[in-house]
Design a protein that fits this description.
Elements lengths: L1 H17 L5 H17 L10 H23 L15 H16 L2 H11 L5 H7 L4 H22 E5 L5 E6 L5
Antiparallel strand pairs: 1-2
Helix pairs in contact: 1-2, 1-3, 2-3, 5-7, 6-7
Amino acid sequence: MTEDVWKEFNKELLGFIKARVNNVENAEDILQEVFIKIHQNTNSLHDHKKIASWVYQITRNTIIDYYRKKKINTSESENFTELPEEMDESTRDFTKCIKPFILKLPYKYQDILLKTTYGNVSQKDYSLINNISYSAAKSRIQRARKQLNNMFVSCCNIESDLYGNILSSKNKNCDC
């Protein structure tokens, strides 16, 4: 059964994982862990009609486990001036473009994006450190992402796939 699941889902799952993890090698490691878990737990699948949701649930849980392990193994740093270097080839070109846009945001949006989305501080920890509610932190991130998206749309024509992975872009005469 595992071999059939591999044939049907491996490329799709790798794209799903890559969209949530910034490192191709880590995404591939997570994919391997997913298929180990699938192999070990095939007897827990009771309704074979629901195999896709079962596979994706295992994948989501494995990604969550990855971030939990990462959080435990990394120490918090107060200065996040660089974006992660670990991006796959399809998004590496956009690294140069993201940071200038983030730096154009108001400070409170820059700070939360650099520390949570591109750093290793959880949203809950960020809210505690900055003495704001968890709900306010989540809202701030959403507003920052929306402003960032608006900047991208006004500057670049971006073509993405079904999963939001960037396939190509064309500059509209801006600074990126």
